[in-house]
Structure formats: structure tokens, C-alpha cells
Amino acid sequence: MAAQYCEPCHARGLTATAFRWCNECEETLCFECTEAHKVQKMSRNHHLVEITKIPKKINLSYNCATHQYLPFDYFCVDHDVLCCKDCLPKDHRACKNVTSIDIASNNSKQSQTLQDSEDQLCFILEVLEKFINSCNENYSRIEEEETEILKQLASNKQKVINRLESLEEHHRKQLADMKGEYVTCIKQQKKDVGELVISSEAVKEELGIC
User: With contact defined as beta carbons under 8 Å apart, do 71 and 84 qualify?
Assistant: First the structure.
């Protein structure tokens, strides 16, 4: 099972690893939140389950776990277990209350152990269902947060691009203005020098200077 994070801590921006599952609150809890959960008046009677003890798979079989090729044929009242024909002489030879599974099934509704097992199975299934729903909600929240973060990144990227383009346009205009001023100045200087050369040549001719 993938690591789960404490939901109360996650809501505060923390990433504490989950330790238990609260069946009533339908959320995962870290060690610190679990201890606080146990003493708070509103949650002290809640049912807390260790996440590591939530079964990944519930295996219901009509065959013996030891001799998988044999079906259950007997019920040992002394040990309160089902057994096959190979288990009977090996593990239940000394038991006095062994009966056929067909006969035992007639009184199965009166078995407290069976009732307890049914209650425990219902509780486990309820916890698993709520845990799965919580995982789905966490997954959906992560997807939404990812989408929002990507939108923010795209928005920030566009802002940076717009800012750079604005700066580029500003500097291009500034550079063009400076170039225009320098070119105008150079042309004026060239004109002034040309006029000075012409006047100098005229003076030279008047004076007869070679």
C-alpha cells in the first residue's frame, strides 16, 4: 500500500505520514493527530484502525487452507473452526464436539463466533469503503491542485514573456531614438565641415595660394 499522508496535517501544508484511519471522521491521522484524537471530547470514542492492519485482500474460500484441494466437511465446536477430512484425524482426533458441516450450518445463525465474524467483516468492509473513498478524494484533490499549479505557472510564464517583450520594445525604441540623434548629429557635422572646406578653398583662391 502506498504511503498515506495525515489529512489534518496536509490541510495545514504539512506532510506527516499517516498512522491510523478514523472510521467516523473518514480521514487518515499521523501519530500526533492520533494522540490528540484520543483525548478530544468529540473524538475520544471514535474507532481508530492501524493503516497497516487494513487488509489489502479478503480471501473467502470453501477449501481448506492447509489442504487446498479438499473442501470443508466438518466443524469442530471445541476449536470453533472448519476442517477437511485430512485435518480431522490429524488435528481434531481428541475433540468430542465435531459435526458435519451440513448439520453445523443449520445452527450457524446461533453461533456467536460467526456473528462476531460477520460484524467484523462488515466493519472491515465499511472501513475499506471509506478508505477507498478517502483515497479517491485525495487523488481528486491532488489532480485539482496540479491543474491549479500548472495554470499559475502558465500565467506567470506569460507575465514574464509579456514583461520581456515590453522591455525589448522599450529598449528598441530607446536605441532607435539614440541612433536617430547620433545620425542627425553626424550629418550636421559633416555638412558643417563641408561648408568649412568650401569657404577655405575660396579664401585660398583669393589669396592665390597654391
Answer: yes
